[in-house]
Design brief:
Structural class of chain A: alpha/beta
Shape of chain B: globular
Strand content of chain B: under 5%
CATH superfamily of chain B: ABC transporter involved in vitamin B12 uptake, BtuC
Strand order of the largest sheet of chain A: 4-3-5-6
Largest interface: A-B, 47 and 55 residues
Number of strands of chain A: 10
Oligomer: heterodimer
CATH architecture of chain B: Orthogonal Bundle
Shape of chain A: elongated
Radius of gyration of chain A: 21 Å
CATH class of chain B: Mainly Alpha
Radius of gyration of chain B: 20 Å
């Protein structure tokens, strides 16, 4: 069984790894409308005839965006991974293995999803259901664009603009609050307990770059399409100031489990309390909560600089 | 020196060289002279070596080399023994559902187990799964009409493996968040290896490989055919049970610490046969030695080829193994005609 499945597994890993690396360029909202929303609108080539009231979201990020822009009460159902906010109407719909009939049973007037698993778009089009694809963001501008796109598509354009403005100004003040040290603070971002990481070319990596952190995984550029699996000995030797654990939920990692790994007790981050617990979900989505995430990073940097000064 | 002694001596020499190479080469540069002195003094860092470097050698590289050797030896010896008792040159240690069972066990542990105990539960569940998989296949094969023949066991293995794989796939689809973990385990993992893994694997591997080693002469007899072996006074059914139990134990131990690493159990025994003839008196010991060396060297490639990133070890063994598999197949085909 092993031999036959290895090829397929490699393909799946590649697919998982490539999420967020290469999103196709998106056209912005092609039709700017006021908050009162003069429907029909055309967004990203999709025409929406009237203000959607039965939205189905198969993307946890889109769910967070929809609720942030005040379209929450227009959402009829969200997928089984959309666990935020708590009042999102979670169902057992899967964005990973979407079942068109199950989606159609909610009689949606708009479906939002992030990755095209094959022919979902065509199947929904066949049923006359408009569908927006919002792939993993590569830059913050993609995030803003997707939020504004959802604003136009749901008739909440001005609220969406406000959300984006607020995000911009908060991110701006966070990045300006950081005093850049002469020697950059280094970090390792952990995706799972087999040391998969991200490089600075990914969306997550760019957030760290915004506050001036230096990524130890960048030496591995070219390997793993932005998501390399690092060697343990390399991480120990690179001796990062900060370790960000994005595998606290999936894999139960914590400062305690990290300190117990062979050879890791000598890493600066472990010795100086620089092992930071992230929420796996926040650190893998590109919704409005990136601001919260960035703030957590900035606090960690401040802590690392204090430890360095002490 | 006889031809046989020469071959064993070569196997030992290759293993020693592989172990040293595995220790000296890695993504972090450590001066080879200093590393050798570290090894000679049994882990006391020589002057000039940092604590960090000593920790890399002692806590990361050495256990990884040892586990790679144990896993390689287990899979190769099990593969060789299976090829004998099933009289099938393409048999590998996963033939009777060990891989599917281990995969299902690991998936259940990841999907339903407490996430802060994966380090313990996943290897344990994989171990149990492998044993259960083989047990089911054996029970099914034995209860079929043709009794204990090799073919009925293999068919039992195929049925069990398909069934267990289907259950695993279903659990994964129901728990999409487990996909990444399960796949990274299936592709083989030595990247997180420490002394704990070596301690876990060592007893089963030594017991199982020693058992296979002891029956190596009987493997030559069983290869003649069930009837022929019976007429020479061999209890074929019992030998097959002994081999299946020992090989499954070794395979389960290997799988539990290293995930699923394909093809090793086929490549190594066949290479050994090309080198030293087909008598199991040589094939088995040499498979142990060369299997250990092979996996140490493959792991060396896995952690240095794209350093500081790693390539899953199962990808490399499959990459080398698939072409080899075809060659072995062609040779067998020609011999048969």
């Amino acid at each position: 069984m092993v031999h036959r499945s290895v090829g397929g597994i490699a393909a799946v890993l590649l697919l998982l790894a490539s999420c967020g690396e290469t999103a196709p360029p998106q056209s912005g909202p092609s039709e700017q409308t006021s908050a009162s929303a003069a429907f029909p609108v055309t967004v990203d080539g999709v025409t929406i005839v009237q203000r959607p009231e039965r939205i189905v979201s198969l993307s946890p990020t889109a769910t967070e965006m929809l609720f942030a822009i005040g379209a929450g009460d227009q959402v009829e159902a969200v997928d089984d991974q959309s666990n935020y906010p708590a009042d999102a109407p979670m169902t057992d719909l899967s964005g990973f293995e979407p079942n068109v009939e199950a989606i159609a049973s909610y009689e949606p007037d708009l479906v939002v999803y992030s990755t095209e698993p094959g022919d979902l778009g065509a199947a929904l089009a066949g049923l006359g259901i408009p569908a927006l694809v919002q792939p993993a963001a590569v830059t913050l501008d993609d995030v803003y664009e997707q939020i504004e796109q959802l604003g136009v598509a749901t008739g909440n354009a001005s609220e969406a603009k406000d959300v984006v403005e607020k995000m911009r100004s908060e991110i701006d003040s966070i990045t300006r609050s950081i005093v850049q040290p002469s020697e950059p603070v280094t970090y390792y971002h952990e995706l799972d307990d087999t040391y998969y990481s991200v490089t600075s070319s990914t969306f997550i990596g760019q957030l760290y770059s915004l506050v001036g952190l230096r990524n130890i995984a960048d030496k591995a550029k070219g390997a793993g399409g932005g998501y390399p699996q690092l060697s343990a000995e390399y991480i120990v030797d690179a001796n990062p100031d900060l370790i960000f654990l994005a595998d606290t939920k999936c894999c139960g990692q914590s400062p305690r489990t990290v300190a117990k790994r062979p050879g890791w007790d000598r890493i600066a981050a472990v010795e100086n309390g620089g092992v930071i617990l992230l929420d796996d979900d926040v650190a893998s989505r590109w919704g409005p909560r990136v601001v919260e995430y960035l703030r957590q990073i900035a606090e960690a940097v401040a802590g690392a600089l204090e430890a360095r000064a002490a | 020196m006889t031809r046989r002694a020469r071959a064993i001596a070569l196997g030992v020499a290759v293993l020693v060289v592989s172990v040293i190479a595995g220790l000296l080469v890695g993504p972090v540069h450590i001066a080879p002279g200093a590393a050798l002195r570290w090894l000679m003094s049994f882990g006391h860092p020589p002057p000039g070596m940092s604590e960090q470097q000593a920790a890399i050698l002692g806590n990361l590289r050495l256990p990884r080399v040892i586990v790679a050797a144990l896993v390689g030896a287990s899979l190769s010896a099990s593969g060789a023994a299976y090829q004998a008792v099933f009289r099938n040159p393409l048999a590998d240690p996963y033939l009777l559902g060990a891989a599917a069972g281990a995969g299902l066990g690991a998936t259940i542990a990841v999907a339903y187990g407490p996430s802060d105990a994966f380090a313990v539960t996943v290897p344990l569940a994989a171990f149990i799964g492998a044993i259960v998989g083989v047990g089911l296949a054996y029970g099914l094969g034995r209860s079929s009409l043709s009794g204990r023949s090799a073919t009925s066991l293999i068919l039992g293995g195929i049925a069990v493996a398909s069934f267990l794989t289907a259950v695993q796939t279903f659990i994964q689809q129901q728990n999409a968040q487990t996909l990444r973990q399960v796949y990274s385990w299936i592709l083989g993992r030595l990247g997180t290896t420490g002394w704990d893994d070596a301690r876990v694997a060592l007893p089963s591997v030594v017991a199982a490989v020693a058992t296979l080693w002891l029956v190596r002469r009987l493997l030559d007899v069983i290869e003649l055919g069930d009837l022929e072996a019976e007429s020479l006074g061999l209890n074929v059914g019992r030998l097959r049970v002994v081999v299946v139990v020992a090989a499954s134990l070794a395979t389960a131990a290997a799988v539990s610490v290293a995930g699923l690493i394909g093809f090793v159990g086929i490549i190594v025994p066949h290479t050994v046969r090309l080198l030293a003839g087909s008598s199991y008196r040589q094939v088995l010991p040499l498979s142990v030695l060369f299997g250990a060396s092979f996996l140490i060297l493959v792991d060396l490639v896995a952690r240095t080829a794209v350093a500081p990133a790693e390539i899953p070890i199962g990808v490399i063994t499959a990459f080398v193994g698939a072409p080899f598999f075809v060659i072995a197949l062609r040779r067998t085909g020609r011999r048969a005609t």
